[in-house]
Write a structure and sequence with these properties.
Layout lengths: L18 H9 L8 H12 L1 H9 L5 H12 L7 E5 L5 H8 L4 E6 L9 E5 L7 H9 L5 E4 L9 H22 L5 E7 L5 H10 E7 L10 E9 L6
Parallel strand pairs: 1-2, 1-4, 2-3, 4-5
Antiparallel strand pairs: 5-7, 6-7
Helix pairs in contact: 4-5, 7-8
């Protein structure tokens, strides 16, 4: 999970020019360290009750509450499960999986993830050949549950961004269906209008039940939703 784009577009105050310009920059130094959109994001974070709860309760991100809500509704996590988390940084979902009884958790993200006791975490691109096999090796067997909170860095071109969203969902779904134990579950982040009909058909063919869910912990102005697929039908000799 990557940092919002606006936080990476910092604009440094000018350090040359006429004296008035320099004076203005100095006066605004503390109030304009961030762009307007970045400042708005920071204020929202500070005022977000889920961010505050995550900090108080020791969760690495507010996203932990999304998985807890989903699990409370669908009963995905239980003692002894093997879990793979795709797009695991900073580790909130890994924490929840372990707290709710998972015996083994393997996670991957493009960003580094600080170690979490009881989990094997790697920094890599999940879509790179061989990374999926590495996760399975770390897990020590086929997963009972595959989680994907992966998101891509948007480029601002609607059609391109849509294709990237669909590509990540397809990659996660293919991995889940190729490796889950029979009866296993799959949770994947998508966005309203982001999951193509053929992906849904693919999941409905491979699972007994597929539902769209928007947890209360998801911000109301966010278009993110989650697909929750349960009862993997695929039989394989493992």
């Amino acid at each position: 999970m990557s940092e919002p784009e606006d936080r990476r577009r910092m604009v440094r105050a000018p350090t040359s020019g006429d004296p008035a310009g320099r004076a203005s920059a100095d006066r605004l130094k503390s109030s304009r360290k961030h762009t307007a959109s970045s400042q708005k994001w920071l204020e929202r974070q500070l005022n977000d009750p889920y961010v505050q709860r995550a900090h108080a309760e020791g969760w690495r991100s507010r996203a932990a509450f999304k998985l807890m809500e989903i699990d409370d509704r669908f009963g995905l996590l239980r003692s002894g499960l093997r879990v793979i988390d795709l797009g695991a940084a900073p580790g909130g979902w890994v924490q929840v999986a372990l707290k709710r009884g998972a015996s083994a958790v393997a996670g991957v993200d493009l960003l580094p993830i600080d170690p979490i006791r009881g989990a094997d975490l790697i920094e890599a691109d999940f879509t790179t050949p061989g990374v999926g096999e590495q996760l399975l090796d770390l897990l020590g067997g086929p997963p009972d549950l595959v989680l994907s909170d992966m998101a891509h860095n948007t480029v601002g071109h609607r059609q391109t961004d849509h294709l990237k969203i669909v590509g990540l969902i397809e990659a996660a779904a293919d991995f889940a269906l190729a490796n889950l134990k029979p009866g296993g579950g799959f949770v994947v982040k998508t966005f309203q209008g982001g999951a193509a009909g053929d992906i849904l058909a693919h999941l409905k063919a491979g699972f007994t039940d597929v539902k769209h869910v928007k947890p209360k912990a998801s911000r109301s102005d966010s278009s993110e939703v989650y697909l929750v697929a349960t009862g993997c039908r695929v039989e394989r000799g493992r």
